[in-house]
């Protein structure tokens, strides 16, 4: 075994097939079940994309109506889950709250059937329907506000925003939110999806796999980056300070959050679509300063390191403009990625092989206790 046999970080290693999505860094494309994500973001609701990722095809009108009926019927937070959330201090990171709430939902699921596709789809649909209530309620309780019950007359995005802010914002805001949900929904074998697949491969249950995915997503090298982007923007303040801030950060060997990607080396295919959504939000809220800071830092990062933004770079400021707390950004990613995770969990379960790689030992040679 030589150093070149070690695939640190599994970089470049292909571990399995997937029919859920295709990332092609050469053509800078991301396909969900064959459809370019940009086309889906421009033309579909989040409900349609969730259906596509789970069932492999876009829904007919009748299928969509039934899918929406089921989702709208399961949105309300159970009393037991609310009680569990209320036990957690409001100083806890929201990702810890979500992780615990999903565990509580799993622990109270009366359906112990872990194996069938129908049962997994039911569990996935339940989490997809309830995560918005968890995310919205946690932001509200941190602000000292009461829970806002869901409204069945609203679509997924409108209802999510309603439960968070107790008002439905203008359509441009709803549309930008939907775009972010669609772009975050799925991205092949990223760290959190792979974590969920590893857990599934042991024949563990769907909730355990999702809880593991949430843990992996929390880190700033993955989903936590959208939150970290906003912390950087807060630190920088105004565009005229961006270059000096960046030079200082790079001199101190800091990673600049929202830039770089393991797979895309020439730019993340999702960024132009999310940047366009950010542009509409900045215009709507009359915040040209946000765009100025965004573009100055992007250009400076390009000239210093030639590293391009990833999806977390435009989504962080977009969520800020929508009114979300910075701490809520990564939970929003969870509410979207639940769809991709569960599609992969079901795919893994359907053609399972225990995921168990090897390691190269570099500890002490064999030795023995004295005497
Ligand atoms: N800031 C500064 N330098 C960077 C950055 C960055 N954001 N990204 C890469 N580099 C440098 C890195 O220091 C290294 O330089 P050198 O060879 O001189 O040591 C080189 O580029 C290669 O970086 P790497 O970290 O070895 O590459 P990787 O493929 O392991 O990293 C990454 C990918 C996403 C972990 C990394 O780019 C990073 O830490 N980015 C910041 C965190 C971030 O935005 N994460 C969100 C990822 S996309 C959304 C998601 O899937 O969740």
TrEMBL record:
InterPro entries: 2-MeCitrate/Citrate_synth_II, Citrate_synth-like_lrg_a-sub, Citrate_synth-like_sm_a-sub, Citrate_synthase, Citrate_synthase_AS, Citrate_synthase_bac-typ, Citrate_synthase_sf. It comes from the Bacteria. GO terms for biological process: carbohydrate metabolic process; tricarboxylic acid cycle. The keyword Transcription does not apply. The active site is at 261, 312. Pfam families: Citrate_synt. GO terms for cellular component: cytosol. It catalyses: oxaloacetate + acetyl-CoA + H2O = citrate + CoA + H(+). Pathway: Carbohydrate metabolism; tricarboxylic acid cycle; isocitrate from oxaloacetate: step 1/2. The keyword Transferase applies. Keywords: Transferase, Tricarboxylic acid cycle. Gene3D superfamilies: Citrate Synthase, domain 1, Cytochrome P450-Terp, domain 2. One of its GO terms (molecular function) is citrate synthase activity. NCBIfam families: cit_synth_II, PRK14033.1. Belongs to the citrate synthase family. This is Citrate synthase. It comes from Mycetocola miduiensis.
């Amino acid at each position: 075994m030589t150093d070149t046999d070690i695939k640190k970080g599994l970089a470049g290693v292909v571990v399995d097939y997937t029919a859920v999505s295709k990332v092609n860094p050469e053509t800078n494309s991301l396909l969900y079940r064959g459809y370019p994500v940009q086309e889906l973001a421009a033309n579909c609701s989040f409900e349609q994309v969730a259906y596509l990722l789970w069932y492999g095809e876009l829904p007919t009108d009748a299928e969509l109506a039934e899918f929406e009926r089921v989702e709208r019927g399961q949105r309300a937070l159970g009393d037991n889950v609310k009680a569990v959330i209320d036990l957690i201090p409001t100083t806890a990171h929201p990702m810890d709250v979500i992780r615990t709430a999903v565990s509580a939902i799993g622990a109270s699921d009366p359906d112990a059937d872990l194996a069938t596709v129908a049962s997994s789809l039911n569990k996935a649909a339940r989490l997809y329907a309830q995560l918005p209530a968890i995310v919205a309620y946690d932001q509200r309780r941190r602000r000292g506000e009461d829970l806002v019950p869901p409204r069945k007359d609203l679509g997924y995005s409108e209802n999510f925003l309603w439960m968070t802010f107790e008002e439905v914002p203008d359509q441009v805001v709803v549309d930008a939110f939907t775009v972010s949900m669609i772009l975050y929904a799925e991205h092949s074998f990223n760290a959190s999806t792979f974590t969920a697949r590893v857990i599934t491969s042991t024949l563990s249950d769907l909730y355990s796999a999702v809880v593991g995915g949430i843990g992996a997503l929390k880190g700033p090298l993955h989903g936590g980056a959208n939150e970290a982007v906003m912390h950087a923007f807060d630190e920088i303040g105004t565009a005229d300070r961006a270059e000096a801030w960046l030079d200082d950060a790079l001199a101190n060997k800091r990673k600049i959050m929202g830039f770089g990607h393991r797979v895309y080396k020439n730019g993340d295919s999702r960024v132009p679509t999310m940047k366009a959504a950010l542009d509409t939000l900045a215009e709507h809220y009359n915040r040209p300063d946000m765009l100025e800071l965004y573009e100055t830092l992007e250009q400076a990062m390009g000239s210093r390191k030639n590293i391009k933004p990833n999806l977390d770079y435009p989504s962080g400021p977009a969520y800020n403009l929508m009114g979300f707390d910075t701490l809520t950004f990564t939970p929003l990613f969870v509410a979207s990625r639940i769809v991709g995770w569960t599609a992969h969990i079901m795919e893994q379960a359907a053609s399972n092989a225990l995921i168990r790689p090897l390691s190269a030992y570099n500890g002490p040679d064999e030795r023995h206790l004295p005497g």
